[in-house]
Structure formats: C-alpha cells, structure tokens
Sorbitol dehydrogenase
Amino acid sequence: MRASVLTPALELVIEQRPVPPVATNDVLVQVSSVGVCGSDVHYYRHGRIADFVVEQPMVLGHEAAGRIVAAGEAVDPRRIGERVSIEPQRPRLDSAQSLSGHYNLDPDIEFYATPPIDGAFAEYVSIPSVFAHRIPESMSDDAAALLEPLSVGIAAAQKAQLTVGDKVLIAGAGPIGLVLVQVAAAYGATEIVVSDLDAARLALAEQLGATASYDPRRGEQPEEPRFDVFFDASGAAPAVVAGIRALAPLGRAVLVGMGADDYALPISTIQNRELLVTGVFRYANTWPTAIGLVQSGAVNLDVLVSGRFGLDQVKEALDTAGSAEVLKNMVLPGLA
Ligand SMILES: NC(=O)c1ccc[n+]([C@@H]2O[C@H](COP(=O)([O-])OP(=O)(O)OC[C@H]3O[C@@H](n4cnc5c(N)ncnc54)[C@H](O)[C@@H]3O)[C@@H](O)[C@H]2O)c1
Ligand SMILES: [Zn+2]
C-alpha cells in the first residue's frame, strides 16, 4: 500500500509498505478520508509534542474513516463492506482505567499518529473492531472522519455536566470550539458566547449557533460573572484566566486547549465561587453520541472542511493548515 511517511528529519515521503496485518479482534479499513489536526501539523513542524518525539519514520493522521475490507478471526465476517468511523485508540482492555470505563486514561494506550504509532495517511489501517464504528449511509466520508474532533467536544460537554438552560462561554473558534458551539446548542444551552481573534471564525460560530461572539483584543469580554460553563478551546492562558473569572458561583471550567504546560490561575476566584476546573484527555464511549448528533442534523461537520488533498499532497495539506482561512484540510488516500 502507499503511505505518506514523516521522517525524523521532518520530510514527507511516499512509501510502499505492506498492508497492516489483521489481528484476531481487529478489522482492516480502507481509508477514505482523514482530517488534518493541529497535532499533525505540530509533529511535522517541530518533531515532537511534550515527551512524544518523532524518532523513527511515522505516518500522521488520526481523524479517519473508511470501509472494512478484512476482519480478524474473532470478528463477524459480515462486517466486511461496512462504512466506518475509526476511534483511533488501542487501550489495554485489562488496565484499571479501561475496566472502570475510562480507557482513554490507560497509561499504556496506543494512539494513531502519536510516536511511535502510525496513523492514517495511508491506504489501509487496522483497528480493534469495537473501535470501527458503523456509520449511516447518509453520512459523508469527511463527516465520518470528523466524528473524532466531535468526540473531543462531547467528552468536554460530559465533563462539564452541560445541561438544559446553561449559559456557556467558549474561548477559541477553531474546529474544536466550533464543534463545542454545536454540542452546547444540542445539549440545550440557552446562551453560547464565543471568543476568538479571527473575525471569520467568529462569524461561523454565530452561524452554527453561538448567540454572541467577541474578540478579546477589543476589550469586549463579559463583565459580570454569569456563565455556568466555560470551555477553553484556545490553549491561550489569558483566555483561560478570563474564562474562569467569567463563571458564576458553582460554575464548571473544562480546559480542552493545549498551550503552555504551566501558568497562573485565579485561585481565590475558584475558591470563593466553588468553581470546578478540570482538563479532558480525548474521549471514551463518545462515538454513538457523535453519530447520533450528526445523523439528526444537530451537528454539521461538513461545514468545517476547507480543502481535500491526495496522499502526494500531504505536505501542502499540512503547510496550509492552521491559518485563519483553513479550518480543516482533509487527506483522501484514494484521491487520484
Ligand atoms: N484535550 C484534548 O484531548 C484535545 C483534543 C484535541 C484538541 N485539543 C486542543 O484543543 C485546542 C483547539 O483545537 P483546534 O483544532 O480548534 O485548534 P485551532 O488552533 O484551530 O483553534 C484555536 C483557536 O483559538 C483562537 N485563539 C487564540 N488565542 C485566543 C485568545 N486569547 N482568546 C480566544 N481565542 C483565541 C485562535 O484564533 C484559534 O481560532 C488546541 O489547543 C488543541 O491542541 C485538545
Ligand atoms: Zn485531532
């Protein structure tokens, strides 16, 4: 098969590789569409994220969909031919975290495109069959791939115990902020305020359900602390501090964005208002909800797609990703 490989010198090359073997409980998926994520761009530009370093050639891409073309011995062979969205993780199912339902927190988990594990910018990938989620025929390949970032938003909403009537503040209107807007609306939030530095992204946030938006550089942030939930999807320390300060007593803050490892938080505000502040690490058990939200029309993922690239064009897809105009580039391994 063909795969786009990132070398330790941070060059992208097309390699001919053997199709991955199909273990007993796995399926082999012919990849149709893969979203480019900020983490892919980061590995390509800097060769590392925290302790994960590109030390050997690896394949990027973890937001993937495709069609099952082979099944391991323990998998129902009738699944061959199914269109699926891939949940790109491989936890040890007997870890304490997995047994308690939090398999995303298994310290020995393998995750696509996190060194040294290969991702999905390739013609075929293998995945445990339970993480190849069947999608309805009405769902596009791109939307099926983007159930992955949607899952991040759903996991954050669950952490925040988001509920009907909540007033929600979201910092950042990139792909994660924009799925959070839609998830918040689907959960019944009655006020959804979004901040970003880019006017076009703020306009899209309003189109997708935000009730108001602002650019923090214009000093327009909310004065009174009245929000029930704050999501950070920016990774920007000033946005996190302002977001926590904007919470009403008993408010919940979920820090999704990744920025500096350490920075100062307004502790007395957290104490005096009894705020809950937590992080979220990817997701567990979110795909059924994600599929339902897209199928019902509550969440539109196709609107996030900016461009489509073949395996030969992964460099272009990564070079143009992350600009204000580009929300989500997609890599289509089957594109001629
Ligand atoms: N915790 C997890 O499991 C998880 C999973 C996926 C992504 N993430 C993180 O979530 C974040 C969002 O992902 P994305 O793909 O949408 O990234 P993105 O870079 O496209 O979006 C971030 C947005 O934040 C905006 N921003 C920057 N500074 C700001 C400020 N001071 N106030 C308001 N907005 C500001 C940017 O203009 C940009 O639109 C990233 O940090 C990413 O690493 C975390
Ligand atoms: Zn991602």
User: Anything to note?
Assistant: The first strand starts at residue 2 and ends at 6.
